[in-house]
Amino acid sequence: MFQKLICSGCSFTSGYKLENIELAWPHLLGKKLNLPTINLAKQGMGNEHVFNTIIDSDLTDALVVVCLTDYSRIEFIHAKSRDTFATLKNQPPINRNFSNIFYEDFYDDEYYFNRFCRNLKLFETYMKYHNITYYMFDAWSQGKKVTNPSSNYLWHGQKDMSYIVHPHKLPDGHPNETAHEIMAETLYKIILDKSR
Questions:
Q1: C-alpha neighbours within 13 Å on the C-beta side of residue 87
Q2: 105-144 b/e with 16+ CB inside 10 Å = b?
Q3: 23: which DSSP letter?
């Protein structure tokens, strides 16, 4: 049925801080499903990165699993280097001065949550239109709930990855190897159950 697994997300999906990124949950899940895995996750990025990397991929015969990050991570592009980066609220940002100015003078929580909800609905519509099997879940609690979430949005408002894998984390809060194993097994069971 599926020929490949495509995943995207932030550091909770990329395998950030693991000694071997092949031990991140996307690769472990791919092994359980016997599928080659494409992991498009990048630490520090926001949901715009998540949605765009999936939509820009060849989704033919793909199973897609995405781990959503905080809606307050807003993506920008450096005009000279063309590198993308996201603002990181309450964390050491990539560009401290830019992020400080952005959050102090330009960030509006309600606007960016509504923008996330709109982009989420557009993503879901795209996936449905192209008949792509996909699942989404939150890396950690968003603190707000999406109205009428799709059944593909696993545990929305009830659980998230940090809840499922607690207390298996590295000193900085990122999931450790055991946490990635738990997440892969949890998703594997869901995918098998929904495939019946």
A1: 18
A2: eeeeeeebbeebbebbeebbeebeeeebbbbbbbbbebee
A3: G
Q: Tens digit of pLDDT for each residue in 64-108?
A: 999 999 999 999 998 999 988 888 876 655 566 788 889 889 999
Give the position of tokens 């280097």.
81
Separation between Cα atoms, residue 40 and residue 6, nearest integer Å: 7
The domain spanning residue 101 has which CATH number?
A: 3.40.50.1110
> Alpha-carbon torsion 111, 113, 116, 122, what sign?
negative
Full-model pTM? 0.95
Phi, psi of 153 (to 5 degrees): -90, 90
Tokens of 100: 């400080």
> Contact, 134 vs 152, CB < 8 A?
yes
pLDDT single digits (tens) 108-118 = 999 999 999 99
The residue range of the domain holding 117 is 4-195
Q: Which amino acid is at 140?
A: W
pLDDT of residue 154: 97
| Type and span of the H or E element at 135 | strand 133-138
The predicted model gives 124-133 an average pLDDT of 98
Neighbours of 176 (CB within 10 A): 17
At 90 the pLDDT is 65
Tally of domains within the chain: 1
How far apart CA 44 and CA 87 sit, in angstroms, is 8
